[in-house]
Specification:
6 helices, single chain, about 10% strand, mainly alpha, three-stranded antiparallel beta sheet
């Protein structure tokens, strides 16, 4: 089997193309793909527990810790201890963070709207079914 006939190669190649496109779009606004995804996954009103963000976006906790530190230094987020459980730390967006989040949101929406114009709804439905099935197979660890 050639590499371009494997599921993994095609998913990874496509994701890299999407990531490059998002990085190009975000560069002028001071955003990267990873930064945008972190900002998009922080609840605007209630904040989000720091421990919940990494699993939501498939990032290693150590990498997220570094990224949150950088986002804090850039004035995009701030952290607060939970009022009920001081061991928990919630991450909140600053006003500047909310603005950058909106930029990321608009780029993602624009791309998805474009895809929906170019790809028939039935094919997208099948794509989502297949991706969900792959995710379930991996989650069940039923591949080896």
């Amino acid at each position: 089997m050639k590499k371009d006939q494997t599921v993994c190669f095609n998913i990874k190649a496509c994701w890299h193309a999407i990531s490059r496109m998002y990085n190009e779009q975000g560069q002028a606004k001071g955003l990267t793909t990873a930064t945008g995804y972190v900002l998009l996954n922080i609840n605007v009103k209630k904040g989000t527990p720091a421990t919940k963000i990494a699993p939501m976006i498939g990032m290693e906790p150590r990498s997220l810790t570094r990224m949150l530190k950088n986002l804090e230094e850039e004035g995009l987020v701030y952290r607060e201890s939970d009022e009920k459980d001081k061991r928990m730390v919630n991450v909140f967006l600053t006003e500047k963070g909310k603005e950058k989040r909106e930029v990321a949101r608009n780029v993602v929406k624009k791309f998805n709207n474009h895809l929906r114009k170019e790809i028939e709804p039935e094919k997208l439905e099948i794509f989502f079914e297949v991706m969900k099935k792959i995710d379930n197979i991996i989650a069940q660890k039923g591949i080896y």
